[in-house]
C-alpha cells in the first residue's frame, strides 16, 4: 500500500474505530446496557475524528516536510521530472528514498572526479618541477664550473657553454609544449583548415626525418595508394606536427638494428585512416591507456636520453581531438607499435 496521509489515516482510523467498537461491545457484554445504534454511531464518530486528527498530523508534520526535502533534492540533482509529477499518487517515501540514493550516487561520482582531478594536478605539478629541475641543476653546475676558473680553461669552456645551451633549449622546449597544451585545453588555439594532400605531406616529413632515421638504422616507407591522392581537410601545420611526433617516436622507440617505419592510408567513407607503425620495442599493455597523458613515458631514463619530455603524444591527441577526430594505439612488446588516427576527407 502507498504511504500517503490519506491511506495511513484511513487505516489507523479503521483500527481505532474497531478497537473502540470492541471495547464498547465488551462493556455491553458486561452491563447489557449499550444499544446497537449508539455503538455504530460512536464507532463512526471515532473513525471520523481519528481520521481527521491523523491525517492532519501526518500532512502537517511529516508529509509536507518530506515533500520539501524531495523537491529540494529534485532541484539539486538532475532527477526525472516524471517522478516529481507522480508524487501525489505514488508512495512519497519510496520516491524520496530512491531520490536520496540517486543523489548520493551522483554526489559520490562528483567527489571521485574532483579527487581524481586534484590528484592529476598534484602529479602534473610534480612532473613539471621535476622535468625543469634537471636542466636547471645542469646549468647551475656548468656555470659554477665556468666561474670557478673553467672560463679560462680552453679545453672545457666551449664544451660547457654548449652544454648550457642544450639545457636551456630543453627548458624552452618543455615550456613551449606546456604552453601549447594549455592553449588547447582552454580552447584558445583555433584550427586553420585547408585542403591538402596527406601523401605529399608524409613524403615531406620522410625527407625531413630521413637523416635521423638513418642514424637509428631505420627506413621510412610510405605505402602507395595507387592512382589516388589522399586529399584531406585539416590544419596542415598541426597535422605536420602530429606526423613528425609519431614518426619521430617510431624512430626513437623503433628497432635500432633494422627499423622499418610504415605510413599507410585507408579509405573510410567520410574519413581517411592514417597509420604510423614501427617494428620496435613496443609498449607494455599496462602502459597503453596512459601513453597520451602528459609526461608519461614507459621508460623514463631511456626516453630522457633521447631528449623526450613525454609531452609529444599529449599534444598529438589534442590536435586530433580539436579536428573532432580520434587517435588510438595498438602495440606488442618487442614486436612494434601502430598509431592510427582519422582525418576528414576533402569534398
Ligand atoms: N612508437 C613507440 N614505440 C614504443 N613506445 C612509444 C612509441 N611512441 C611513444 N612511446 C612511449 O610513449 C611515451 C610518450 O611519448 P611522447 O611522444 O609523448 O613523449 P616523448 O617522445 O618521450 O617526448 P617528446 O615527444 O615530448 O619529445 C614515450 O616516452 C615512450 O615511452
Ligand atoms: Mg614524442
Give a structural overview:
This protein is α+β, with helices and mostly antiparallel strands and 347 residues long. The chain has three domains: 5-106; 116-185, Signal transduction histidine kinase, dimerisation/phosphotransfer (DHp) domain (Helix Hairpins, Orthogonal Bundle), CATH 1.10.287.130; 194-344, 2-Layer Sandwich (Heat Shock Protein 90). Helix content is 60%, strand content 13%. It contains ten helices and seven strands. The chain has a five-stranded mixed beta sheet. A two-stranded antiparallel sheet has the order 1-3. α1 packs antiparallel against α2 (36-76) and α5 runs parallel beside α10. The longest helix has 56 residues, at 92-147. It starts with a helix and ends with a strand. The model has no long low-confidence stretch (mean pLDDT 88). It binds adenosine-5'-triphosphate and magnesium ion (MG). Magnesium ion is lined by residues 245, 248-249, 308, 312.
Topology summary:
Blueprint: H1 5-31, H2 36-76, H3 81-85, H4 92-147, H5 157-185, E1 194-197, H6 198-208, H7 210-215, E2 218-222, E3 231-234, H8 236-252, E4 259-268, E5 271-278, H9 300-305, H10 312-322, E6 327-332, E7 336-344
Parallel strand pairs: 2-4
Antiparallel strand pairs: 1-3, 4-5, 5-7, 6-7
Helix pairs in contact: 1-2, 2-4, 4-5, 5-10, 6-8, 8-10
The chain binds adenosine-5'-triphosphate and magnesium ion (MG).
Amino acid at each position: 500500500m502507498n504511504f500517503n496521509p490519506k491511506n495511513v489515516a484511513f487505516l489507523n482510523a479503521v483500527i481505532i474505530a474497531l478497537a473502540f467498537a470492541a471495547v464498547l461491545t465488551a462493556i455491553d457484554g458486561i452491563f447489557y446496557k449499550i444499544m446497537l445504534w449508539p455503538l455504530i454511531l460512536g464507532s463512526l464518530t471515532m473513525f471520523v475524528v481519528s481520521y481527521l486528527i491523523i491525517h492532519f498530523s501526518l500532512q502537517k508534520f511529516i508529509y509536507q516536510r518530506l515533500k520539501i526535502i524531495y523537491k529540494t533534492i529534485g532541484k539539486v540533482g538532475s532527477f526525472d521530472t516524471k517522478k516529481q509529477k507522480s508524487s501525489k499518487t505514488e508512495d512519497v517515501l519510496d520516491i524520496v528514498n530512491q531520490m536520496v540514493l540517486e543523489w548520493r550516487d551522483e554526489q559520490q561520482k562528483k567527489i571521485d572526479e574532483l579527487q581524481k582531478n586534484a590528484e592529476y594536478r598534484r602529479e602534473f605539478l610534480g612532473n613539471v618541477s621535476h622535468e625543469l629541475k634537471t636542466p636547471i641543476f645542469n646549468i647551475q653546475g656548468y656555470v659554477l664550473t665556468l666561474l670557478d676558473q673553467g672560463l679560462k680553461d680552453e679545453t672545457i669552456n666551449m664544451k660547457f657553454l654548449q652544454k648550457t645551451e642544450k639545457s636551456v633549449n630543453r627548458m624552452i622546449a618543455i615550456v613551449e609544449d606546456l604552453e601549447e597544451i594549455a592553449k588547447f585545453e582552454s580552447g584558445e588555439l583555433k584550427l586553420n583548415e585547408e585542403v591538402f594532400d596527406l601523401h605529399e605531406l608524409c613524403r615531406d616529413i620522410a625527407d625531413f626525418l630521413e637523416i635521423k632515421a638513418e642514424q637509428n638504422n631505420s627506413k621510412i616507407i610510405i605505402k602507395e595508394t595507387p592512382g589516388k591522392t589522399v586529399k584531406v581537410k585539416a590544419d596542415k601545420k598541426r597535422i605536420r606536427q602530429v606526423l613528425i611526433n609519431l614518426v619521430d617516436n617510431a624512430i626513437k622507440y623503433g628497432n635500432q638494428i633494422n627499423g622499418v617505419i610504415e605510413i599507410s592510408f585507408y579509405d573510410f567513407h567520410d574519413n581517411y585512416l592514417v597509420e604510423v607503425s614501427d617494428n620496435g620495442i613496443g609498449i607494455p599493455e599496462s602502459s597503453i591507456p596512459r601513453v597520451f597523458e602528459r609526461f608519461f613515458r614507459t621508460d623514463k631514463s631511456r626516453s630522457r636520453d633521447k631528449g623526450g619530455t613525454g609531452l609529444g603524444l599529449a599534444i598529438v591527441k589534442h590536435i586530433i581531438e580539436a579536428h573532432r577526430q580520434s587517435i588510438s594505439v595498438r602495440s606488442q612488446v618487442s614486436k612494434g607499435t601502430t598509431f592510427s588516427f582519422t582525418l576528414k576527407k576533402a569534398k
